[in-house]
Structure formats: structure tokens, C-alpha cells
Amino acid sequence: MKELREILRRAEQIDDGEAVLATLVDVKGSGYRLPGARMLIDRDGNSLGTLSGGCLEADIVERVKHVLESGEPSLVTYDTTVNENSVFGLGMGCRGVSRVLLEPLRNNPALEFIAHCIDRRERGVMSTLIERQDGGELLHDARFFFTESGELPPPKSQTAAELNEFFENVSWDAKSAMREKRSYCKSYPTTMGRLEFFHEVIDRRTALMIFGAGRDAVPLAELAAELGWHVSLIDHRPARASKDLFPTVDRFIVSRPEDLPTDGFAENGSAAVLMNHNLNMDREILSRLIRSNARYIAVLGPKDRAEKMLAEISEAGPEVTEDQLEKIYAPAGLDIGAPTPSTIALSIVAEIQAVFAGREGGFLRNRQGSIYDR
What string of DSSP letters covers 65-101? Predict the structure, then answer.
């Protein structure tokens, strides 16, 4: 997410639009990145972002001039399944087929829609025409947009008319991609021949709420920000909850736990970390967090401390349910032997990533099958 936000910022700085947006739309076999990975390359060959481990980028940069001159999108296929040295003699060491969509930045609505989703912190899907069997040109406006709120911004040109005949099927698959949080390509038979669309999920920024502005919260906030997460810091001390001490935090809430408004607690699907180092404060916050829509709740400190708080919360009523207990991670973090604030922050962030990805956080060498569940 951080990389994508940097691409958005860089795109705004290119006044003449003389740049190319490269998007990885499909990967079969081995691949370093997932579909949706992006690069922005200007006319001078300066680039931001990556689509692979460095294997494809040089060739992509070479193709920029042609795309800018033609003003038309282009789909490029890189196939190393037959010979791992097939891309310019580079020993890539992995075999797979990658397809990359190259598009001029000028008059391209893709980044505008992505920015819309990021700013609103709303999941969306962008369905882009990437290939047509009839040999017709790919067009900037051959896209449909969908958001969680049900908003369907209409296509902006005459292309909409010729695509209307299968809009219902495209929208069905786009919404399916949104539910599954999985980007994929799909072909559709039409009177014009087979058309293939890339249904790309634009996910929300991971929202992290840190309760407690102690010194050990600094590396946690910094690491989460480095990953592009939206970080909120909640503390009752104005002198601590400040940009001077936490320059990477997006939002500050200065309040005692009992005075926190309802909207000061976790939004749907967010992560929360309790690190006040004050039993009464943490208990008050935990009693409200477990009944919120938070997906992950971490409590610093030993397990018996968290168990004591939960017992007291249940005694005060209503009793904590099994489903609520499933959201609680105490002690916080993965077991990596973390002895310092920075390594503890690393273990917590890694645990959040694992939980949100539906993984156990173990060694990849013990995993059976694809790393990415492809």
C-alpha cells in the first residue's frame, strides 16, 4: 500500500502526463509479486515501484517510448516456462508466465479510482479490458468501477455502449472478487469475440489503533506506517500524543479511556494494540474493544494479566463470548524471541499481517504448495 501511495503522489507531480503505468495483471507459475503490483515510468526512464524481483523491469522501461508515442495501452507477456533464460538471457531462476499491462498516464482514470478508494478507506474493484480476440485496440475507458458502498461510477465514453451486453456478468465477477479479496482475469464470449477483463481488488489500508503513547509505541507506529497502514494513537496525555514524538501517526485521539467516544474505537476489520502499561486503563479499553468490530486485539504483558482483565470484564457483564476471545492475542506478537521495543513491534506487526492473511505465521520452508495460494 505504501508503494501505491507513492506512485499516486509521483503521478500528481508529472504535469504533462508523459509517463506509463505498468500493472501486473496475471501470474501463472512462479512470480515475485501478485497481480495488481504497479510501476510508474516517465519518459526519461525514471521508475517507481516493482513488478518482479528485478527481472522484467529493464524490458518494461524499454517499451515506454513506444507506448507514449502510440498513446495506446499494450499487453506484454513474459514466458519463462520453457527456458528460464528466455528473458534477455537473464537467469531468472523461476519459471512462470507474467502479463503486464502498459498504459499512458495521461487521461487514465485508474489512479483516480485507486486514490478514491484509499482516501475513503473503502474496498473497490476495477475491471479493466486487457485483451480482445477480435484484434481491436485496448482503450483507456474500457473499464468498470465498483465500490463496497455499491456506487458504480459509469464508464466515461462511447466504449460503454459496446460493453453493455455483458456488463451484468462483469459486475457479478467484480463483486465476487471484492468479497474474496482476490484479483483475477476472466474471459467473456461476446458478439465481438472473446474479451478478457482483469478484476483488480483495491483493498483498504490496514487500520491500526495504538492505545498508549509510551516510548515502546514509537517503533510500532513507525513500522506500521512504513507498511502504509493507517495509524491512530490514543492517549490521555496531550504532551505524549503529538506529531513531535510520533511523526508517522495519521490520527491522534487525546482522551481517557472512559471518555472515549464510540467512534474512537476500532473500525470494522481493524487491529488494536493495548500498551498503556496501566491495568485499569487497559481493562476499560479492552472491555469496549472486544465488543467492537475489531478483527485483532493485542494486549501487551504476560498471559495471566490479560486473563485477569477478561475475568473482571466477564464478572461485570455481559460475559465475554468465545467469538470475542478469538480476537484477542495475549501476549501480543509472534514468537520470534523479541527482547527490545523494536523487535516486539516487529513481532506484533508480523502477527497482524498473518492474522489478516489467514496464516499461522510459521516458516515458509514448512509450507506445502504455493506461497500465495494461487
Answer: HHHHHH-S-EEEEEE-SS-TTTTTT---S--EEEEEE
